[in-house]
Amino acid sequence: MEVTISQFRKELFTLAEAALRGEAVTITYKGQKLRLKAEREGSIFDRVTPMKMMTDPEPGDEDLSLTSARLLAEMEKEWEEDWKDIGKE
Question: Which of 5, 24, 50, 81 stands the most exposed, by the fewest C-beta atoms within 10 Å?
Fold first, then answer.
């Protein structure tokens, strides 16, 4: 529905109720159009911005599963070296 600013002033509450029901209310003032629209309440999670995780690969990064496997192999090799003398007594 489209109204003038004078009509909007006279019917403020009626037009506000119409906007709350989801109707489009357009107000014309000095040749410009203003839109009255109800803001919908959403879940608190709708406002959450996603956090960049380390598991999200960057373009050009190598696959993390390969990196993890390589790091685990290096750690196992060092553990074996550190513990090789245990039990030889």
Answer: 50
| Contact between residue 3 and residue 27 where contact means Cβ atoms under 8 Å apart | yes
pLDDT, one tens digit for every residue, the chain (89 residues): 899 999 999 999 999 999 988 899 999 999 999 998 888 777 777 778 877 766 666 666 666 666 778 888 899 999 998 888 886 66
| Model pTM above 0.70 | no
Residue type, 49: T
Written as six digits, the tokens of 33 are 């159009």
Per domain, the residue ranges of the chain are 2-36
